What does this fold into?
Amino acid sequence: MSFFDRFKKKKAQQEQDEQLEAQEQAAAPEPVEPKRPPQEEAEPSAPEIEDEAEPEPEVEPEPEPSTEEEPKPGLWGRLGRRLKKTKDKIGGSIDRITLGKKIDDEVLDDLEEVLVTADLGVHTSLKLIEQLRGKVARKELDDAEALKQALRKGIAEVLQEVPTAPERDNHPHVIMVVGVNGVGKTTSIGKLAHYFKSQGRSVLLAAGDTFRAAANEQLTIWSERVGCDIVGGQEGADPSAVAFDAVEAALKRDRDLVLIDTAGRLHTKVNLMEELKKIHRVLGKKLPGAPHEVILVLDATTGQNALQQAKLFNQVVPLTGLVLTKLDGTAKGGVVVAISGEMKLPICFVGLGEGMEDLKPFEAEGFAEAIF
It folds into this structure.
């Protein structure tokens, strides 16, 4: 008999057995549950009323909503929650590679790989690992928690080694904002205007992005929301002329700060980057010392590409600081440490959401704490 014939015969037998079993089950009398006496049926009604009356303990834990905000109020409490992916990547990996092991060179080799993949960069990761090796040699690290605390301290030190951002005490103080397309540059300028206005400073915006369609309109909407002046130009106008006019207007109107938007451009396009030099030169001619700050806006979700952008922009115009946007919901938060460690540039502000209040001054200690 062939395999196919045997298979058919076996299948037919199975179907026949299933039919017989179904017939037997249909013929068998269904078990009847003995009826309870009326007293027994009535008795459960009392406990039912008691059970319904007992949800009161559930009302007591009402303080729970407030406890979410109490552990870490404010910016860095929220940052800790929004940096969960980076926190899980670094902290979770440390727990995994140290499980059942003593802290030794093998563990540190694994940790180096974790830091690099978390976008802390090769240069900064090597520096941190060398610090940890010294602590291991001195027997200062004996468990995963001690390793995390030492790494947190090392990251905070890297972030604090950079020079501080310039004092904003010029009148007017001119800030030129640069960055590639799509990083949230114009939105960041609007949020910066709101931040400075909330400090009691008068702000003037310059719509220097004369190439992108509707860029002027977008910044105008922000100026209306914030309640500050704006100077713009026609689409296709010379952005250097717009910057010049904005500083002139700020001097006449006695404004404290001027925030200059510039056209988003690919950092690899030399001819477009050259225009930034021109704006920089024109500002210096109109007001000696201007621009007093050149801030680069970076999208944190791009990881190591953000570091490359910072290097190339810094070659064209001398950067004084950085704004990191979209830091919430990304596993690439470690790029903050890489940029600070390699570029020696201060992170001035970080963006944690879409709201007008979600752009805040950066704090090294708070950030290091948040990712652990």
